[in-house]
Specification:
This protein is mainly beta. The chain folds into 2 domains: 84 residues, RimM (Elongation Factor Tu (Ef-tu), domain 3); 64 residues, PRC-barrel domain (SH3 type barrels, Roll). Helix content is 8%, strand content 45%. Strands 1-2-5-4-3-6 form a 6-stranded antiparallel β-barrel. A 6-stranded mixed beta sheet has the order 10-9-8-7-12-11.
Amino acid sequence: MSEPVTEAQRVALAAVAGAHGVKGEVRLKLFADSVDSLAAHKNLFVGGSGKKLLSVRDGGKTAIARFDGVASREAAEALRGQLVEVDRDALPPLEEGEYYYADLIGLTCFDSQDNTVGSVVGVENFGAGDLLEVEKTDGKRALIPYRDGIADLVAARIVLDPAFLA
């Protein structure tokens, strides 16, 4: 018997930004590469509840989606802010050097002398490359580029140059 999938074993592909129109469609902020990444999954979790994806299309800066059981603007608006997730096992296998953001969050960060300097609490990409949000051991946070020599993934941990933790 297999264990049920928990929320910790899910990966967020998008977040509901609000309603679109009056028939239950929602606007999505995509975390994935494209609408196609989301369209590959028919069974998703929206706000932790299982939902069937009926349709999804490019909406310019957002994606427009329709979920089973969401048939009015009010129902769509009630989903605002909810994550659209998929079971981790439903994602395609990764190639060498690839990663999912969810795999980086929670990793402990070390300097080159093996001293703990913090942990990854988020991953952002504003267009110029991935940034790791690191919560330092003193509780302060810093964004650092996720680039070779600055922050490297080594054996399920991040080895980083502390000079970038201003």
